[in-house]
Structure formats: C-alpha cells, structure tokens
From TrEMBL, chains A, B:
Stretches of the chain forming a coiled coil according to its record: none
Domain of life, per lineage: Bacteria
Span of domain DprA winged helix: 312-367
Domain Smf/DprA SLOG: 85-290
Pfam families hit by this protein: DNA_processg_A, DprA_N, WHD_DprA
UniProt name for this protein: SMF protein
Family in the record: Belongs to the DprA/Smf family.
Annotated GO biological process: DNA-mediated transformation
Length: 372, 372
C-alpha cells in the first residue's frame, strides 16, 4: 500500500511474524523488505529463509526467532507501554517510514500523537559550551512554539538541552538500546519528562544494552524521522556529523550553527556549512527553509504483498559462482555487478539475498555491497 | 586602449589636464570617463564643460580646477613621494582599473611593485574581539606567505591587525583622505611600517581631511583593488558590510568568517554567509576559491580618444525639457528613461551629462539616476 491509512493495522499474527523475521539472524530492515516483497508475507519468508541462507553458504544454520520469543518480546514491551508499530500504522513517524532502511517494527512509547507532527532534529556535542546549550534551548523552544516536535538522542549536552526546552510542546527521544535500557542512566528522569507529552522510539529489542556501533545506526532514525536536522556545535569527526551525513543521504535539510574558527567545538558545523549545509542563527531560518516542505504529502513505501520485482526462484550454481567471484572486500554497486556478471538482475539480487542471509554480505550506503 | 601596456604613460600636460578635470565641480570618475570618451581628451572637455553645465541649468558657473592648482597638487604629492597614476599605468592596481568608477588619477605611494600583485582585502570591526584580531593576523600572515598582498583601510581593529601581520610581505592601505591627512592619527606609525615594503593609495586631493561620507566611497577602492574581500567580525549595519556589498557589485569574491549566533560581532558576517558569501575558517579556503581567478587576464577599460558612443552635440530644448520632466527624486534606470522619453539614447545621455555637471543629477548603483 502506498497511501497512508490511519486504520491500517497488522493482525496480531502478522505482527508476531514480522517481529520473528526482523529478529532473525542476518535480517536487517532492507533484507526484511526484500523477503516480504519476494515471498508475499513474513510468515512465508520465515519458512524459506533457512534454505536461502544454506544456498548462500552459511557456515551454520541461521537462527530464527521463535514464535514464543516474539510473543514474549511483545508482552514485555506492552508491560511498559511500548507498541511495536509497522510503517504506516498510527504512531509510526510518517517521515521515518520513507527511508530505505525504516525499521519494519518500531517500538514507540508515550504520547504517540506527537509522532504525526512535523519534526526537527537538534543534535550536537555531548560536551557543549554554555553558549551551545543556551542556543539549543532557545532554538528548541522557539521551534516547539511554532508547532514542531523536537527529536534528539537523549544524550548529554545539546540533546539534553533541546529535549528539556521542548518537553512542554512535545519532544521525541530516539534510543540506541531497548526501551528498558536507557542510556545514559542519569537521563531516566529526562526521559520521564519527555514521555509526559512526547514520546520515545527504538528499533532494538527489549533488554538490548546499547553498544558503540548502535549509535550511528540509531542516528539514521533521528534524521529519518525529521524533515530537517540542526547541528549545534560539533567537533571534527563527531557523531553529530554522522547524523548530518545520513540526513543528507535521506534528502533531509541539514542546518548548522556557525562558530568562531578558533573554537574547536565549531569545526564540524563550520565544515558542514562549507559543504553546503544551511547556516542558521535563529529558529526563523529553519522555519523559512522547511515551510515549503511541511505540507508535502508523505509517500509511504510499499509494504506487504504488492507484486514485487521479478525474482528467480533458484539461481543456477554457475551464475551464483560467477557472481560470488566478482564480489570482494571492496564495495561494488549493484548495476556494475549486474553488468559484469552478465546475468539477469533478478538472479543477481537473489544471490545477494542468499549471501546476506548467510551473513557473508555487507550492504553499504548508496546501494554498494561487499563480501565480509 | 584595452590592453595593459607597462610603458603607457600620460604626458605631463595630459596628467595636468586629467587632474584639473577630476578636481572640477560635479565631475566624478564616471562623468570624467563620459567627458573624455565624448570629447576625445580632458583638455577639450575642460573647454566645453562650462557650456554643458549652463545648459543643464547650473545655478552658478561651474568652478574649474585651474592649471596652477593642478600643478601645485602634483608638486605637493611629489614632495611626499606620491605619484598620481592613471588606470593602466604601472603602479595602478590592475583590478582597481576595471571598476566602473575607477579613479582617473590615483595617488599611490610606497613600493609600487606590490600594486601589480594579486590582492585580498581583509576588513572588519574597529572594536573587534581578541579572537577577531588573532584570526585576522593569522589569515593575513598566511595569505601573505602565499604571495597575496593584503589590502585594508588602516582603521583600528581588524584593519590594523591585518596590516601589521602582513607588513613584511607587502600590504596596501587605502586612505579616505589625502595622503598627508592620515586617519586615525595614531596610525602614522602603522602607515610608515606599511610603506616600507608595501604601499598606500588615495583618490582624494592632498590636504583633504576625511569626512564620514568619504569612508563608504573609499571602501569601493578596497574591494575594487582586490580579487576577494574577507570580512572578519562585523556587527549589523557596519561599514565592512558596505565594503562587502560593493565587492559583490564589482563581481569580487566575498568571504566571511563565521561566529556564534550569540556574539553580536558575528551578526554581520553570519548574515553575509546566509546571503551567499563563502564561509571561511582558514587561508586555504580563500586560496582555493580565488586560485582559478588569479591568472585571469585583467581587461582594462578604455581610456583616451577611442571612438566613443555617438553623442549629440546639443539636444533640442524640447527633448531636454521632456527628459527633465521624467526625472524626479526616485531613481530611474537609463533604459527606462530612454524608452519613456522616446528620444535617441545619445540625446538622453547628453542631457544627463549636462544635468550632472550642473550638480542637479545624482547617479546611483546599477545605472540608476535621480534629480537632486
């Protein structure tokens, strides 16, 4: 379905199957979508997954999430008020549903009405200056007053300042771990304040303690949920710059707050402006830039059965071998691979899916793939 | 002549006539060029000027600069080492010669070799912060090391810091008054240091004490001499922003140094970046931007006799009356005026010149004119 339908809901059986599929080994959001589009449903994909992974050369049988495990996670989530929502369901941020790797099920908690309102992300250094804190507060407050929901990462520094200044108007915290594993621990109070009129979202299972690699992954949800991302103070190579890069890849507006060239906390934001981000000094700069975008209808991605791209049922062994031989540690684009393999696109895509499910393929930005 | 010729020099008689013409009432650089192009020489223009001004309705006879006055100024200039140079002559900054209202005679002093090298202007607040001073110093020093001559206005604050940091490599001070009327007075030492390996230029007569309105006029020479203008710290509505605007009108690159939105001294520079100026944080940003421009040959404007545009010798009284009736205090463009007057362009241009010499016409940027 391509049109947002507020009454659209997965059945409980579908939701359990969706959760099982996304929690199974080597299934990320992109693979999830490929499988469901190919086999018509998550339940059918679960049946076929072990065979695909075996053909891809998995060293050991893929571990599938069991029905009992999925039911347990759904129950545990429900107990602390977390709903596991599919793209298109009420409470799933509409813009987030449009990114390539939107979580098939998103854990959402709090006042889910805010998820439907236009969001602006405000991110920045954890060790921000007093001026940075103050600017983030003023900006979050003023954008909140204009009706925007502030989305951020519940971190120390800029994130915290942005959430605090917008709790009254509704703000959304995006978590890198499970809903019951808040990081940093001292922000449990902040989260409680956020949840009063706003919400929190996570794609991770209950009980998941966030690791370093989960933060960049989480950052794509911050930028994806928003129509624009404001970076306030960011040093060279900081996490906020990853969020800005993802925002640009997702077609989101990127805004940066300038600072003195002699202030190392402004290096990242000044660089962003050099690279084309919009310099802002006040909320009005953001509002003027996003005004034309706000009312643009959100085009939701296709979800269930829809007739997918043509796939081949099982590629010939010689095709598979030729495609695998072309893959290596250096990322290569799908188009190049199809051309070099001289094989039908459907065959190449199926082999890549097999390899992915076997845990042998890595997907990169821009549709590039490499062997692990 | 359109091609730069290092051996090109005015004769002494020509230089005296040029000085007489530009020092006469109601003759600015644009009128000067119109008159010389029309009458073929400054000496002929001096003969015809009183009659043109009378036809334009001058309330009293135009005061012409006498030959004795011009000779005195040339001698006074020579005594303190100032040469009065025409565009195209050695020592006249080549880029400055390309602006619409380039001074027909420029007083230049010091090491005139630096005038031939590519220049970058550095301007900014008189009451700059310590960080602003430091940034201007580093930038001027690094650009000087790369071979650029730093041009600025000898003012307190950023100007001073930029000159000081580049005295060894050659820097150019552009004065708002005569060469013997240094402003501010306490910068006589700075000027002496500048002149050791660099130079100073002014279009004003010897003895002219700079008034407030002379500074914006001077600023067009700072931007005009440079291939790019860097604004370091500028508050809202500051003089440096006038220089930036002139730079943009002259087709020069405009660079601005960012600052915190909470720092009022960065309001002007952040605004410039919002309007399209290039954000810079180090000399390399400037160098990379101007590198493609540096070796572009400078196209000098036409100077003496060249067959000019066709002019009519004396417009009919009815034409003159109709054109004057169309003019008022609101600026109007030449093209609109020609269309509305339904008169040949040559007639309109001649009437405008008459009015200008009578002190009744004001010329604005973008070719607009109004009655005074």
């Amino acid at each position: 379905m391509n049109i947002r339908d507020p009454d659209r809901r997965l059945s409980e059986a579908q939701r359990t199957d969706w959760l099982r599929l996304i929690r199974s080994d080597n299934v990320g959001p992109r693979t999830f979508r490929s499988l469901v589009n190919h086999f018509g449903s998550a339940s059918e994909a679960l049946v076929r997954l072990p065979d695909l992974a075996r053909r891809g050369g998995a060293s050991r049988p893929s571990r599938l999430c069991t029905e009992a495990e999925a039911r347990n996670e759904l129950a545990a989530a429900r107990r602390i008020g977390v709903s596991l929502l599919a793209p298109g369901e009420a409470g799933y941020p509409p813009h987030l549903a449009t990114i390539d790797d939107a979580p098939p099920l998103l854990g959402a908690r709090g006042n889910l009405d805010v998820m439907e309102r236009p969001m602006i992300a405000i991110v920045g250094s954890r060790n921000a200056s007093g001026a940075g804190h103050k600017f983030a507060q003023t900006l979050a407050h003023d954008l909140g007053d204009t009706g925007f929901v502030i989305v951020s990462g519940l971190a120390r520094g800029i994130d915290q300042a942005a959430h605090r200044a917008s709790v009254a108007r509704g703000t959304v915290a995006v978590l890198a771990g499970g809903h019951d594993r808040i990081y940093p621990l001292e922000h449990e109070d902040l989260l409680a304040a956020v949840l009063e009129s706003g919400g929190a979202i996570s794609e991770m299972p209950m009980g998941h303690v966030p690791r370093a690699r989960d933060f960049p992954r989480r950052n794509r949800l911050i930028s994806g949920a928003a129509i624009g991302v404001v970076v306030v103070e960011a040093a060279h190579r900081s996490g906020s710059l990853i969020t800005a890069r993802m925002a640009a890849e997702q077609g989101r507006e990127v805004f940066a707050v300038p600072g003195s060239p002699l202030d190392p906390r402004a290096t990242g934001t000044n660089d962003l402006i050099k690279q084309g981000a919009t310099l802002i000094t006040e909320a009005a700069d953001v509002i003027n830039a996003v005004r034309p975008i706000i009312r643009r209808p959100v085009d939701l991605p296709a979800e269930e059965p829809e007739p997918g791209e043509p796939w081949t049922e099982e590629p010939a062994a010689s095709d598979r071998a030729r495609i695998i031989a072309l893959l290596g540690p250096a990322p290569i684009g799908l188009d190049d691979l199809i051309r070099m393999a001289n094989a039908p696109p459907a065959v190449v895509r199926t082999v890549l899916l097999e390899l992915e499910l076997a845990g042998r393929l890595e997907r990169h930005g821009g549709g590039l793939v490499s062997m692990m």
